[in-house]
Amino acid sequence: MKVTVREYQTKDLPAMIRIWNEVVDEGIAFPQEEFLDEATGATFFGAQTYNGVAEDTETGQVLGLYILHPNNIGRCGHIGNASYAILSSYRGLHIGETLVADSLKQAKAHGFGVMQFNAVVASNVHARHLYERLGFVPLGVIPKGFRMKDGQYEDICPYYHEL
Does the reported pTM lie above 0.90? Predict the structure, then answer.
C-alpha cells in the first residue's frame, strides 16, 4: 500500500463523510455529535480552508482526511486548527503522521503562523505522542473538558506548534 496526501475533490465526499461519521459515532475524539449527510458534508468540507485526503494510490481508496481552518478570527486569525480522521481498519499504519505532516505544510502555505489544537482528549495517547514527536508543545490540561459518548468526562490537552 502506498499512501499519498492530496487536496480533496468532490468525488471524495462520500468517503470523507463516511470516515468523519465513523469518528463522530465513536464519541471519543471529535466534539461534533451530529452526523454529516451528502448536503451537510459538502457544506462542512467546502467551508474549510483546506481539506487533505490520504489515498491509497494503488486502489484509489480514501483512507483518511484532515480539515484545516482558522482557530479564531481577526487578531487571532493567524492561528490554524486541524482535525484528523482515519478509517478504523487503517489506523496504526502511520497514516495519521502523514496527514499531520501535510497539514503543517498546508497551514504554512495558507498563511497560518501557528497551529493550535484546542481539545486533544487525554486518553488519545497515540495522537498525543504523534503531536509531540512532530514538535507540538502541550499547554496543560483542562479537567473534564470533553464529554465522551458514554457521558463520562475526560480531560483535554491543548497543543500548539509554531510554523
Answer: yes
